[in-house]
Structure formats: structure tokens, C-alpha cells
């Protein structure tokens, strides 16, 4: 059997080629006055010569050549095909022939050469339907939808054209008796043009997929989902929607002083290293990051507040693990503060026509940001609002204590806030659990303006847990309140 990948050039012939019926004993070259061989020499002035130089920026997958797989159990068919197409070029690139003499060989070779542009495929080979089975394998198993397939058969009765066209994903159907050189040339040109177009479309599709994937890094898919947009391309200035969500703000403590010890490049490396630790945690708990604000994170949780609280606790744990690495490599450990609030907000696209951005606007956002700021005041890892606490599926499962009432700028009513210390070190968590009754009693007395009585409870807390920053803060507030001298009023 000839070499299955034989691609030796054949000498051009000036006679018209006719593929004889398979019942005939041999294939013949027949000269026909009404059709000239189109595979003329390069110096032939005929406008029909098969030389194309259309500018094509698309690189061929297999190099600067078009691969054609000839599949037929008769070596003469291979030789004649190569002979006819010997001088053929398309868009300045020649043909590389690959030969297979059975359906099984064809399957192996198309796997080896997935960039094949065209398959000239016989139907009857080792079996009566070997060619058809090869088509199914290429399309259904390999999922190669780009390669063009032309069936060539010498026994059309065994594979009727209408049945084959309907049931098999082929691109053309030819009987060997009708396939003249001109027709073969036309079929090859048509197939290569189609392959080129499909390849360009596929590359465009892949490039768009890359762009869509990249855009998701800047505008979360969840954000577009709430705007009812398929992609960032569909979003326009002013698009907005109202939704109820839980907002999480996270920030690195004392980042300014920490950054002063680092170069700009080290700052960037540090921030990205930290964000790689906590970013995935947010996504794992059904949230998405709306934006980065320097070393800060603003994340949204559209499903349940439990997702946000669970994410915050896990973020604290992840930072603890990250600190082990930092300490082992000679870096200073870090701490983060997290504020969480649930409420209605507006998601939308703001900016102007040449520069737009996704954003979230609401009082709920302002309060969540305020709670994150308060973590520094109270020395707390996580602070949540009463609105978030009340919507949790099972609030008692979290280690939690009442902390304060806070006001948002521009609002008159105060909001009760709570410390979630579930993410603290085990020893710290146990001390806060032990002192929780005294702490909350002291806070209640403080709001009753019974500062001396409150002091006693706060001092009792510090006797057990002298690192409790929230208790120490309240004790100082009580001492300051007691020093205020009320004005003396005189009666006439």
C-alpha cells in the first residue's frame, strides 16, 4: 500500500480528466475540446489559472499551506487528484496532500491533522459505508465542523445523493464519472473559500469569547444579569435597576502606614497578593466584587445575608492563614475590618458616552461603608447592622454581641449594629463569650446615661479580657461623660 501521507508533487497534464465509474477497469484521461485544463503553468496568460493572491491576514493553522485529505482505496484516484491539483494555489498558498486508503486511516489522520481544510472522501472502501461512517466520526466524535467534506462515489446507487445530503453533514456530493478537472477545481476552490470563511468566523468567535471573559473581570456577569444584559456590549449609559442585596465592605487596617514602608511596585504586589486570598472567598459564597477601592473591597450578595456573613468569617480565616505565610517570609501580618448591611440599592451604568462604569448607589452602601470604618474604632473584625442580623436564617449560630447605635450622614434615626466575632481566634472568641453578659449590660447602662454603673461592668470585662478594644472604648466614653460639668441654673 502506498505511503498514507504521501504528498509528492505530480507532473501537470494538459488533458481533461474524467473519473471513470468504479465498474470500469481503469481510469482514463480524455481530451475534450470544450474544456481546457485549468491547472496551467505560471507563465500561462489564461485568466483561469489557479493562482490567487487575495490579501489574507488569517494564518493557516498548519502553516502556509492548505491541507487536503484524499480518502480512497484506489491508489489511482490519489495519483490523479494530485496530478490535477499539482500547480494549484489558493490565496498564495499551495496544497499539501494527505492520503488515506480506508475509513480507519482517515479517522486517524484527521485526528492528527485537525487543521485539514478539505476531505475528498470515497464512500465504498473497506465496507460499503466506510466513508459515511467516517463523516459521522469527524462531525459527531471529533466535533470538527470546520473541515469541508466532499463525497466522491463510483456507485451512487449504494449511497443515493438525497439520502446522504439529508442524513450526513457533508458539503458536496459528486460521482466520479462527472468529476472533470474543471469541476474538481471548482469544488476545491469553493470548499477552501468556505473553510477560510468559517475559520475566520471561528477565530472571531473565539476572540469575542476572550473579550467577554476579559470584560467579566471588569464588570461582573452578575451585575449584567441584574441589568438584564447579555454582555457588556449591550450595556448603555443610564441602565439601572433596583434590588435588595447585602453589601460588604472590607479594608486593610493601617494600610497607609504599612504602604509607607514599601515601594510602589511592592504596594501593587502586596495588594494583589492579598486580594487573591479573599476574592475567591466572596465568589464561593455567591457574592461578586463590585469594585476595588485601593486596598478596599466592595462586594454584593444578592441571595441571602447569610452568604455575606459566612464570606466575612471565611475571609478572616483566610487572612489568618495568609499571615502565617507573611510571618514565615519576614513580612508584617495584616488585619482587615468588614462592615455588612442589607437593604435596597440601585445598580446601574454611570459616566458619559466616552467613559462609563458600573456602580451601586444607595444609603445602604453608605451605611455598610460606615460600619467598616467603625471596625477600627471598636477593634472588631466584623460589624453588621440590625437589618442584616434580623434576616439571618439562624442568628444564634454566630458568635455575636450588641455593639452600638450609629447614624448615617444625612439620616436622623440611629441603626443598631452588632459585632460578629465568629472569625476571631478561638481564645479571643471564648473570652468574648465569657464576658458578653457584662459587656452588653454595660452598654445598656451607658445608653441610660448611668455612666458610673456602666464603668463597673466594663472594668469587670477588662479584668477577664484586657485586649477587648470595644470595652476599653466604652470605658473611656463613660469617663469623658462623667467629666462634663452641667451648667448651674439660678432661681430668682
Number of strands: 16
Helix/strand structural class: alpha/beta
The name of the CATH superfamily of the largest domain reads Nucleotide cyclase, GGDEF domain
Instruction: Return the CATH class of the largest domain.
Output: Alpha Beta
- How many domain units? 3
Largest sheet, in brief, is:
8 strands, mixed
In CATH, the topology of the largest domain is named Alpha-Beta Plaits
What is the gist of this entry?
With 492 residues, the chain is α/β, with parallel strands linked by helices. Helix content is 42%, strand content 21%.
Task: Give an overview of the whole structure.
This protein is an alpha/beta fold and 492 residues long. The chain folds into 3 domains: 17-207, Rossmann fold; 221-424, 2-Layer Sandwich (Alpha-Beta Plaits); 438-492, no CATH class. 42% of the residues lie in helices and 21% in strands. Strands 9, 10, 11, 12, 13, 14, 15 and 16 form an 8-stranded mixed β-sheet that branches. The radius of gyration is 38 Å and the shape is elongated.
Descriptors for this entry?
Alpha-Beta Plaits; alpha/beta; elongated; disordered C terminus; Rossmann fold; 8-stranded mixed beta sheet; 3 domains; disordered N terminus; 6-stranded mixed beta sheet; 16 strands; 492 residues
Question: How would the blueprint of this fold be written?
Answer:
Layout: E1 17-18, E2 28-29, E3 66-71, H1 75-84, E4 89-90, E5 93-100, H2 103-112, E6 118-122, H3 130-141, E7 148-153, H4 161-167, E8 172-175, H5 181-218, H6 221-226, E9 240-252, H7 255-259, H8 264-284, E10 288-293, E11 296-301, H9 305-328, E12 336-352, E13 355-361, H10 363-378, E14 382-385, H11 386-390, E15 400-406, E16 415-420, H12 426-447, H13 451-464, H14 469-483
Parallel strand pairs: 3-5, 3-6, 6-7, 7-8, 12-14
Antiparallel strand pairs: 1-2, 4-5, 9-11, 9-12, 10-11, 12-13, 14-16, 15-16
Helix pairs in contact: 2-3, 8-9, 12-13, 13-14
